[in-house]
Amino acid sequence: MLKLAVLISGGGSNLKALIEATEQPGFPARIVCVGADTEAPGLAHATAAGIPTFVVRPRDYGSRDEWGQVFAAAIQEHGVGTGPEPGLVVSAGLMRILPGGFVREFSPHLINTHPALLPLYPGAHAVRDALAAGATETGVTVHIIDEGVDTGPVLRQARVDIAPGEPEDELHERIKQLERPLLVETVREIATGALQLEGTAAA
Ligand code: GAR
């Protein structure tokens, strides 16, 4: 059974999809903790499901690296990234760049979901950037996190057509409707071994 640590910053609809999937009998992974960099509303999904949560705020630390060390240690306390089974860290709406030390601690067992077809539109405003570029399509990417910003090896993608004049929030919601099952299925494939992370990371 693959142990998951899920990291969020916001509403946590991807987290909720992962909780619902991992509660199904036979799903080959379970969530052992949910971490956030702020008092994210989505933490309530974890609490309702009886999953331990923690918040580690960057502003409480002197540097990003120090924050990353404390964040990593909080995950490891739950048995992810320690011992013979590496587990998997899932960044599902964590709106913060993870420092290099954190990435090296878990790599390549560290994935992110991003609302664009990477390498297009990396960063914090992927949906807005796709609209601003006049794109007619965008999508979602699940990828291994490396030390760059949304530059790690792509695992799975799904495409969405952009409707003319479509508002950002509506487009993002349509992306999320594809994103949630894509993330769940990617985690399932990693847990069963159908998708290998070792040797995939470019780093
Ligand atoms: C998701 O669409 C995720 O891809 C995006 O934040 C949203 C979180 O939604 N992440 C990024 O943009 C990271 N650069 P949720 O809180 O409802 O799961």
UniProtKB/TrEMBL annotation:
EC number, as in UniProt: 2.1.2.2
Pathway participation: Purine metabolism; IMP biosynthesis via de novo pathway; N(2)-formyl-N(1)-(5-phospho-D-ribosyl)glycinamide from N(1)-(5-phospho-D-ribosyl)glycinamide (10-formyl THF route): step 1/1
Positions that bind (6R)-10-formyltetrahydrofolate: R64, M95, R96, I97, L98, N112
Gene3D superfamilies given in the database record: Formyl transferase, N-terminal domain
Class of this enzyme: transferase
Site (Raises pKa of active site His) location in chain: D150
Example GO BP: 'de novo' IMP biosynthetic process
Domain Formyl transferase N-terminal: residue ranges: 3-187
Keyword Cell membrane: no
This protein's GO CC annotations: cytosol
Keyword Transferase tagged: yes
Active site, UniProt feature: H114
Sorted UniProt keywords: Purine biosynthesis, Transferase
Function: Catalyzes the transfer of a formyl group from 10-formyltetrahydrofolate to 5-phospho-ribosyl-glycinamide (GAR), producing 5-phospho-ribosyl-N-formylglycinamide (FGAR) and tetrahydrofolate.
Protein name: Phosphoribosylglycinamide formyltransferase
Higher taxonomy: Bacteria, Bacillati, Actinomycetota, Actinomycetes, Micrococcales
